[in-house]
């Protein structure tokens, strides 16, 4: 990208000093974009669908909150925007596991109440939360592991 911009700048009638600043700015933007993309590739800062099949893979790296939920659950619906916000702000992954679509897996994990959130750090469960939490409460809990 920087090379393309440099070539385009050569053809323009722009002072040399200005070209230098434009190349530096473009390089910084490219570096920031690449860093953001690599975080997204690691699954950080996003919400993903979790099932019995991909569960272990999704919790393996970083801080992950697995939210056991159902579409008919009012508190689960209230929790969703809070979790999305935390995913972006704290650069963590939120895994959404629909209990109706994963009944036997949910039973095997001994989840009997929703919403339930399991917090993992590099594949190990560090917190088991049941019920509706505020953003502030979840932030305080997450800060222990970040």
TrEMBL record:
Residues 1-36 form the signal peptide. The keyword Cell membrane does not apply. SUPFAM superfamilies: Thioredoxin-like. PROSITE patterns: THIOREDOXIN_1, THIOREDOXIN_2. Residues 29-146 form the Thioredoxin domain. GO terms for cellular component: cytosol. Keywords: Disulfide bond, Electron transport, Redox-active center, Signal, Transport. Pfam families: Thioredoxin. Gene3D superfamilies: Glutaredoxin. One of its GO terms (biological process) is cell redox homeostasis. Belongs to the thioredoxin family. NCBIfam families: thioredoxin (TIGR01068). This is Thioredoxin. It comes from Dysgonomonas capnocytophagoides. The gene is trxA.
């Amino acid at each position: 990208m920087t090379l393309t911009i440099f070539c385009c700048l050569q053809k323009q009638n722009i002072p040399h000093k200005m070209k230098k600043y434009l190349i530096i700015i473009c390089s910084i933007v490219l570096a920031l974009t690449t860093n953001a993309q690599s975080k997204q590739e690691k699954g950080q800062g996003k919400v993903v669908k979790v099932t019995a099949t991909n569960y272990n893979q999704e919790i393996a790296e970083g801080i992950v909150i697995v939210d056991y939920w159902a579409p008919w659950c009012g508190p689960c619906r209230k929790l969703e925007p809070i979790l999305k916000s935390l995913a972006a702000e704290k650069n963590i992954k939120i895994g959404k596991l629909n209990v109706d679509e994963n009944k036997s897996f949910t039973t095997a994990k001994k989840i009997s109440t929703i919403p339930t959130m399991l917090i993992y750090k590099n594949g190990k469960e560090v917190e088991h939360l049941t019920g509706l939490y505020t953003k502030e409460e979840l932030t305080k809990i997450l800060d222990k592991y970040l």
